[in-house]
Amino acid sequence: MTFVIGAACVDVLDRACVEECPIDCIFEGGRMAYIQPDDCIDCGACEPVCPVEAIYFEDDLPAGQEEFIAENARFFAEPLPGRDAPLGQPGSASGVGVLGVDTEYVREYRP
């Protein structure tokens, strides 16, 4: 089980979670942030600092937001727009920087 960023993050991108993550595994897309599920150590440091309460254990994601589990994983597992290969496990998010793109689902998501 890992932490997942849900719908409340879309179009907010507060960055408090990014700054709090001790292993630097929260990456910035265009409309929201994504947690690298294979790197997350489930420490929970990101959850209490999120001002919009968008971060959950994947089993605790509110009803209707289940797709965000897949989207957090898809962000790393499939090529993003403008990229030829998946992001995978690139190491530190700060080393990669702001990616500025999202999965198709998030790009088209309307709250």
UniProtKB/TrEMBL annotation:
GO molecular function: 3 iron, 4 sulfur cluster binding; 4 iron, 4 sulfur cluster binding; electron transfer activity; metal ion binding
Cofactor note: Binds 1 [3Fe-4S] cluster.
Domain 4Fe-4S ferredoxin-type, chain residue ranges per copy: 31-60
InterPro entries per UniProt: 4Fe4S_Fe-S-bd, 4Fe4S_Fe_S_CS, 7Fe_ferredoxin, FdxA_Actino, RnfB_subfamily
PROSITE patterns, per the entry: 4FE4S_FER_1, 4FE4S_FER_2
Gene3D superfamilies in the cross-refs: 3.30.70.20
Required co-factors: [4Fe-4S] cluster; [3Fe-4S] cluster
Keywords: 3Fe-4S, 4Fe-4S, Electron transport, Iron, Iron-sulfur, Metal-binding, Repeat, Transport
Task of the protein: Ferredoxins are iron-sulfur proteins that transfer electrons in a wide variety of metabolic reactions.
Protein name as catalogued: Ferredoxin
Originating species: Nocardia mangyaensis
Species classification: Bacteria, Bacillati, Actinomycetota, Actinomycetes, Mycobacteriales
